[in-house]
Amino acid sequence: MNIGFIGTGNMGRILIDALLESEATHPSTITITNRTLSKALAIQADHPLITVEHTAEEVVNKSKIIFLCVKPLDIHPLLIKLKPQLTQNHCIVSITSPISVEQMEEVVDCQVARIIPSITNRALAGVSLTTFGESCNRYYRSYLQHLFSKISRPISIDQDITRVSSDIVSCGPAFFSFLLQRFIDAAVQETNISQDVATKLTSEMVIGMGKLLESEIFTLPTLQEKVCVKGGVTGEGIKVLEKELGDLFVHIFQKTHLKFDEDIEKVTHQFNF
User: Fold this and answer.
1) Main-chain phi, psi angles of 5, to 5 degrees
2) CATH 3.40.50.720-classified regions of the chain
3) pTM exceeding 0.90
4) In contact, 82 and 112? CB cutoff 8 Å
């Protein structure tokens, strides 16, 4: 299956590298382009069998599945531009959350899907969020599920939980890496531990905790129960968390949804213009 990528920024490159490392596809099947062509050429330097084209139209002409790895407000103009080249044998896959498959189907006559990846997919782990348009046939659905099962656990989501699911899967790594960095900084500030040692210990702790959850030895609640011995040190720390975290995460979801609503309003104006 020939696969195209229009946009090779952070997430586009992550997907390409992950798909190749997992051997989900072969570099000779991939055609890419980018507004700044040097970014696409840098990927080709690492994977010489990948084809780099100068235009999005050329990518479509050489591909059956085309990933649109561009900003939300760039999707509609790109679909209008590509519409003459797209046929029923093509499948467009958007990786951005504010645009629904129904909106894309209103513009183009090809098959449509939306798959929201996570940076964790680069480690061939984590979740990818899938939504298929009514136009997307069984063959393409199966193939895309197979492709992403090589680098993630694909989970189908409905439109009404798109933002919160993306907050957890895609934004979550950034949110929790920020919290962990603050955790490390506080340890260095309050004790004699070095930044390097605190970072190493924290990183290994997170990896170990992930393996416990992956193996289903413990759940998140039972992890707390096992570590938090009554009257112990951990319990004192939990008391601080309970007191000071407050509605922190509620405010995070409120803020991300507010931005999401703003993006949807701008995108809707484009599609309804």
Assistant:
1) -130, 120
2) 3-156
3) yes
4) no
CB 43 within 8 A of CB 16: yes
CATH T-level topology, domain 3-156:
Rossmann fold (3.40.50)
Rounded to whole angstroms, the Cα distance separating 128 from 151 reads 9
pLDDT in tens, 245-266: 999 999 999 999 999 999 999 9
Q: Which amino acid is at 32?
A: I
Amino acid at 29: T
Main-chain dihedrals φ then ψ at residue 221, nearest 5 degrees: -65, -40
CA distance 106 to 260: 21
Asked if pLDDT for residue 273 goes beyond 70, the answer is: no
Question: Who's near 96: CB < 8 A, 6+ residues apart?
Answer: 68, 70, 71, 72, 75, 114, 116
* CATH 1.10.3730 domain position(s) in the chain: 165-252
What class, spelled out in words, does domain 165-252 have in CATH?
mainly alpha
Sole residue written with tokens 């797209």: 86
User: How far is the C-alpha of 230 from the C-alpha of 184, rounded, in Å?
Assistant: 25
Report the C-alpha gap between 2 and 60 in whole angstroms.
Answer: 10
Q: How much is the CA Rg of the chain, to the nearest whole Å? A: 21
Confidence tier at 272 by pLDDT (50, 70, 90)? confident
